[in-house]
Amino acid sequence: MSMQALISGAECATTSNPLSQVLKHAEGDRSIQRVRVTAGPSSSLYRLPPSSSQAPSAADLAAARQFFEQQQQQSRGPALPSFDVERLRNMNMSPGGHATPPPAAVDMAGAWQGAARPTFSPQLTPGGSHAAWASEFELHRQTASPSAQTAEPMYRPSAFMSQRQFQPYMPMQSWTPPVAVSGKGKGRMTDADFDAAFAALSTHSSAKIEEVDELTEGLQDASLQDNDYMSEFQKSWEEVKKNAANNPLSQPAAEELARWEAQFNQLNSESRLDDDLDYDKQLQEAYEQSFNQYDIHEPGVRIGEDGVPDFGAYQFEQDNKYMVEDAQSRSFLAEARDLLANNGSLTEAALLLEAAIQKGDTGKGGYEAWVLLGETRSMDEREEAAMKALAEGTRLAAEAGDPTQGLMSLAISYTNESYERASYNTLLRWLKARYPGVEVPPPSDMQSPWALHAQVQDAFLAVARGQHTSGAAVDPELQIGLGVLFYTDSQFDKAQDCFETALGANPNDYLLWNRLGSCLSNGSKPEEALGAYRQALELRPTYTRAIYNVGVACLNIGAYEEAAKHFLSALAMQETGNGGADGAGNDKSAQLWTTLQRCFTYMNRNDLAEMARKAAPVNSFRLEGFDF
Amino acid sequence: MSADLKEEGFQASEVLVAIATSFAGLSEDEKKAQIKKVNAIFELQLKNGSGKTGTWTIDLKKTGSVYKGPAKPKADVTIIMDDATFVDLASGKLDGQKAFMTGKLKAKGNIMLATKLDSVFKSAQGKAKAKL
What Gene3D superfamilies does its record include (chain B) (predicted)? Predict the structure, then answer.
């Protein structure tokens, strides 16, 4: 794995002082650009030979682990000039303060890293009991064999109990990015919960570590001595009282917590809404409004009660060359499967699948072809078609008694297109289908717009935790779902950990590599993102979406010409399958064009931007000197 | 146009200028896509340290613009908070959910749209977004 070549050695990984490293970037350090982060001519990035073995081998697992460890060592802040609210703020607030405060997002990550690192390990809290527990925990962790990385789940009860804020249904807002704290050099994925637990137990200024009913369970599990923990707890309670306006209790005895919870909810609800409005009426109105807004995203797209958009039936391509052929002699479905397995053109595969479906060959359970079609379209950067196909596929799968099929992909498509509520509800559907026994408590705070997200996230976390305590194998799909939930909440570091865990189990899953890449990219780690995308493309060179994402990463680090080449090659690949003509109703990936247009604008080439705006034939760009 | 947005004593106005600038820099298609994704008119009522309240509107439903004053014709959601809270939200120091829970952020109207404010800030940063 030539990760080293990819991640330049030009920058020292100044992880001990993230602020300095970030300041370097803010001052316009472009040395990253000078080094070819795409590791060679762009064409080689995705025309690499496909990997032959499909099953995760020991070598793959080791390589994946190596990738993560390298990442951990080389994690660094972003190099992006960005809309600098922090700067604005500091300019007003601290006259005479230094001139270049770091971009806000980075600062947060950097600050967390910086803060968490020194407080890692033994010296966490008052009370020797913690140290004892820590060493016990550590032993426990070390006995898990490396090949059981998959068996090592992300979250443990201890992690949870220390993370939860005073509202039980709230997700862990105060997690530190685990990456910073794994000072022992082990793979990041196995450290997540462990590190987070310790980091949070430390006296970080904004970490609110007060507990609710979880605490009592947690205490028993971890066999802590009550005295030490309670005093720490009481300290944080004092903090809470000072900060939270409506904390009615003074003495958090365990049995009163539930009562407090209810009171707190009530008080908070009263303070949040306006006094003169009738809360019930307002909530009613708000819900009605959101349901009645047909055109939340598009005029004509009806959005259901659960936020799920209804795009109507799937529109098959009009000019499908396979449709005129004699169906008897060929199994389009089998051919499509072969094509996908051998990294053929995604557009071809989609056509084959459409032909198969139209001829009635829908595969296993009547849903297989649909789900495959949806996933293919999604990979090919045609999200609306993907959503339609997956909606149909998941519906059929549920009818066929195989209800988890395709739901994860559908949820991800919704996420990409900003249909967040649909995504949460789809994930919930998946969870209930996959774990029928699991109890999902209703959202505790119905009036909060974030309630649904919190509810679903908590449900996922509960199952993940349960898997850990019972010693069951970690479910990679559960991790993926959790990752998606963190991703929609912009908690990219946590999402990253989830996807890495899932990758531990499936190192050859190119979809996962792409998803990991996007977490890294949106989490402002473009160089690492490129590494992940490269993995995805090595496994599937025709993965249009991954190519788009590579372009986006290049764009974000300022490598505009590189970015343009990638977008153009993605567009070229889309063109080849269809001869340029597009079928009825299938969006031809407007996003590729608009991002390409933006690219050209940054390059100050308005002529090219105009061509992109008009979606000129891809060849005309070759004539302009772009080699792809 | 940006000059109209500024208001003395409000740090938020700087942020709003930045948001307006980023909207102006979008191509027509990109703006349309943004409007499609958000489809909301946010009216912001921000109170600063000296007790004054300033009102601005972010229109991501019809025009894709930011202007001072209440929403015309009508806001989909009105968000009420402190000047400082707004700046924290925009810079990512505070997240919407926490703000809401602690009562720092109040919403009137279609409160579900309050979650979209996060994405407005993100897109104003001008970074292209990767896809899962």
Answer: SCP2 sterol-binding domain
Rounded to two decimals, what is the model's pTM?
A: 0.64
Per-residue pLDDT band at B124 (split at 50, 70, 90): confident
CA distance B34 to A197: 38
Read off the pLDDT band of A71 (50, 70, 90): low
d(CA A378, CA A373): 9
Candidate from A245, A381, A448 with C-beta closest to B100:
A448
In chain A, where the domains are located:
307-405, 529-578+585-627
Give me A186's structure tokens. 């082990």
- Residue A234 confidence class, pLDDT cut points 50, 70, 90: low
User: How many CA atoms, within 13 angstroms, populate the side-chain half-sphere of residue A427?
Assistant: 32
Q: In this structure, is the dihedral angle defined by the CA atoms of residues A293, A299, A302 and A307, taken in order, positive or negative?
A: negative
CATH of domain A529-578+585-627: 1.25.40.10
Distance of CA A117 to the CA centre of its chain: 24
Q: Which of A296, A298, A525 should we substitute to test contact with B (largest number of B Cβ atoms within 10 Å)? A: A296
Task: Write the ipTM.
Answer: 0.91
**Contact criterion met (CB < 8 Å) for B112 and A449:** yes
> Which residues lie across from B108 on neighbouring strands?
B78
Asked if B33's CB is within 8 angstroms of A290's CB, the reply is: no
Please check whether residue B2 is in contact with residue B18, taking contact to mean a CB–CB distance below 8 angstroms: no
Burial A215-247 (b: 16+ CB within 10 A, else e): beebbeebebeeeebbebbeebbebbeeebebb
3-state secondary structure A443-474: CCCCCCCCHHHHHHHHHHHHHHHHHHHCCCCC
Interface of B with A in 23-52 (CB under 8 A): 27-30, 33, 36-39
DSSP string for residues in A11-29: S---TT-HHHHHHHHHTT-
Whole-angstrom distance, CA of residue B3 vs CA of residue A321 = 58
Please give the backbone phi and psi of residue A126, each rounded to the nearest 5 degrees, phi first.
Answer: -65, 145
Pick the CATH number of B2-126 from 3.40.50.1820, 3.40.50.2000, 3.90.550.10, 3.30.1050.10: 3.30.1050.10
Does B132 touch chain A if contact means CB atoms closer than 8 Å?
yes
Q: Any idea which residue has 């972003």 for tokens?
A: A78
Cβ distance A382 to A586 under 8 Å? yes
Chain-centroid distance, C-alpha B71 = 12
